[in-house]
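protien #1 (seq + structre)
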Amino acid sequence: MLPTAAELIDRARASTGHTDLGADGWQDGLDRLLDAATRDLALDPATAARLERTVEHRLASRLRIEDWYRRQAAPPPALDGIVVIHGLPRTATTALQYLLAKGPEFRYQRLWEIRNPVPPPGAHSDEDDERRLAAIRAGQDALGGSVQHITEPDGPADDNTILGLDFHNQELGLPLPSYTRWWRTASLKSTYAYHERVLRLLHAARPPRLWLVKAPYHNFHLDDLAVQYPGARFIMAHRDPAAAVPSGCSTVGTAQRNALPGAPPDPAELGAFLLEHLVEGTERAMAARAVIGEDRFLDVHQEEVESDPVATAGRIYRFLGLDLGLPARAAMAEWAAANQRGARGQHKYAAEDYGLTRKRIRESFRDYIERYSVAPEDE
């Protein structure tokens, strides 16, 4: 049995010596996460302990963040802007973020700093930061790198950690369908306010302050994100859903099997749930774009990123009103050449492995495919 939210909060306060958890809005997500874990999981002692550690770490991070803010003579500088990469998962969103991160204009979260954001990194050099060195010593597996996903010690991380700090992440690392279904339509206004608070902490002494962030699941809450960041620009990544959805099933299935080795997910149940989930996210994104304004969105297809990554980056820079200089072009070309599809091995998956068919997936995404002229991908 899991501890109550109050018990976990007391533990985090005792471990840090701090009491202030910041602005309200996170409590409902925490309550629902603990309820879903009890409802949806067969909680063995190891899984329960791991979930407790995760929750305590998030609470402790919030406490340290608020203590850092309390000790500042003035608030950290505002963002100079934000560029948001989103779309279906497995549409080269990570590759696109890594590619653009080679440009000197952008600030992005490194995994080692966002897992433990206090104190924020220094202004001059991060090479000797103990958090970075510890991540390198732990090796690529600890950083999350695999055939399925690009991860480098100093590369960009997506927004799941920050959203988790406010207990409004989609939480697909465990099979928590009751939580995830609630999260889809929950308000993320407080979460994106906290998102900005964390970014400002991270860039307090470590510019630049034009942020490049990424998460496919921003699809569900672009309206709330745009309220928090009224000047945000959006890059929506596209790929044939008949390829993207099974690839997502494989990635999520791997994460859930690793988290619950004694109770792996049923592939057909996972396939049906993710198809439902991703269709809804795409529909919500299309509806939000019409409200936010299509002029703030740029569409990028995976085949563009793979066939001519530097030209794709140039098109994005023009959309953002930036100049792509020769050093950045060279760095992007070098990174792209070393990270072509298959460079870390072949990621094998099939729709049928998850009780789906390519035809059924495409029918479910018919409006999306037609609206964005998404080309079918060969098997």
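ok now protien #2
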Amino acid sequence: MTNAANTSAVATVANDNAQKQRTYPRMVTPKTIKEGKNKNGTEFVSFIGEYRRQGKDKVYTMFHTASGAALSSIREQLKEGQPIRVFGVFDEMPADAERKSKQVFRIVGLSVPREQAAGEMQQAA
């Protein structure tokens, strides 16, 4: 995915939520992957992901989700225990009868190193 595509995905995220959200890159290792469909019939995937914060050695875990175009962009690389580089936004998962509200990392797309993205843009020109 090129930077132009990343920018487009970010604009879509901002438009969907009617506010600007900052995207964050993350190298995450998926554990316990679950797939399903939401009430609208859109496929989604959710998993507990392990990641490290910048400059820290400690491993943290957080609930991650992806659906729609984001899911199709990461599907090939999404394997349990295999690290994947993504970018996304922090969302709040609302509480229901079974769980408390909690913060989730919603994946927006696959993150590509700048060098590779620049090469893809030159090939497209």
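The mean pLDDT is 81.
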